[in-house]
UniProtKB/TrEMBL annotation:
InterPro entries: ACMSD (IPR032465), Amidohydro-rel (IPR006680), Metal_Hydrolase (IPR032466)
Segments forming domain Amidohydrolase-related: 3-251
Protein name: Amidohydrolase family protein
Keywords: Lyase
SUPFAM superfamilies the UniProt entry points to: Metallo-dependent hydrolases (SSF51556)
Molecular function GO terms recorded: carboxy-lyase activity; hydrolase activity
Keyword Lyase: yes
Residue ranges of the TM segments: none
Pfam name, any one: Amidohydro_2
Length: 286
């Protein structure tokens, strides 16, 4: 079973000029041109399940999404998609939108980007979000790591604050996206020590040297065989086939050298990772 744990969805009318202005900084090869429901269904043809979410990042990267688009995609492709809600704690109706997304739209988790919304994980405005998620057995995927958006405060992308929140809310399942790049060591040590914290490798394969070092570091801290690391693409920033091949071929750049290898078992664990067994207490039936 191949599960993509990180897929972005937005319609063309939710993209502002800021997105086009900055998107070239994200990846030299460029991004897929669309991320609507039908595009995602085609792109995820080789994936058994995909976790999808909208982005409320209008002022940082120029995508102004909403949960209705996510829910409509799940309704159209129920065998393929599981939807998460988007949270922006700056919005005065943040909790109303969250409750609506979970209780009316039936979304199954939350996505939040502290660096994109300019809100630290330690900000008091997030406390009711954490409490609601913990009470209702809902996981929180967080963008952890840097980004290209000029208006995004870089410091909020660092993973260390996850350690604080994990201790305050021990029953809240938290997932650090992108292994906290380039602060992957912080991500790995937090995931190792906190049983309710996980991480994932989306949008890393196109920086292969960094990706290689991330996985070797994860092995050295012994988190690669404990259902701590999950696979994803971050579409439209990366596609399925290249993300799979980038992981499978990670050792090609060190062939003929004495450098350590990413173990076949590490690669297999990540490719066969199943968030639905681990991100919800008791699992999630899909």
């Amino acid at each position: 079973m191949l599960v993509d744990c990180h897929v972005n969805i937005y319609n063309d009318d939710q993209v502002t000029p800021l997105y086009a202005k900055q998107a070239g900084l994200a990846r030299a090869a460029g991004l897929a041109p669309k991320a609507d429901a039908d595009t995602l269904a085609r792109e995820m043809a080789d994936v058994d399940k995909a976790i999808i979410f909208s982005l409320r990042y209008a002022d940082s990267i120029g995508v102004d999404g909403n949960d209705e688009v996510t829910a409509a995609a799940v309704a159209k492709y129920p065998d393929k998609f599981v939807g998460f809600a988007a949270v922006d704690p700056r919005m005065p109706n943040c909790m109303d939108l969250l409750v609506h997304a979970i209780e009316d739209l039936k979304l199954k988790g939350v996505k939040f980007g502290p660096i994109y919304n300019g809100v630290s994980l330690l900000d008091p405005r997030l406390e009711p979000v954490y409490e609601y998620l913990q009470k209702n057995n809902l996981p929180l995927t967080m963008h952890m790591g840097t980004t290209y958006g000029r208006n995004a405060p870089v410091n909020y992308g660092r993973p260390l604050d996850v350690d604080t929140i994990a201790l305050r809310y021990p029953d809240l399942k938290m997932i650090m996206a992108h292994m906290g790049h380039p602060w992957y060591e912080e991500c790995i040590v937090v995931a190792r020590k906190q049983p309710n914290v996980y991480c994932e490798v989306s949008a890393l394969h196109y920086r292969p040297w960094q990706f290689y070092n991330i996985l070797v570091c994860a092995q050295e801290y012994t988190i690669t065989d404990r259902n701590k690391i999950f696979w994803g693409t971050d579409f439209p920033f990366a596609r399925v086939a290249e993300s799979v091949e980038g992981l499978k071929n990670i050792n090609s750049q060190v062939e003929g050298t004495p450098l350590p290898r990413v173990a076949d078992t590490t690669i297999d664990y990540i490719l066969n990772s199943n968030p639905f067994e681990h991100w919800w207490h008791g699992g999630l039936a899909v």
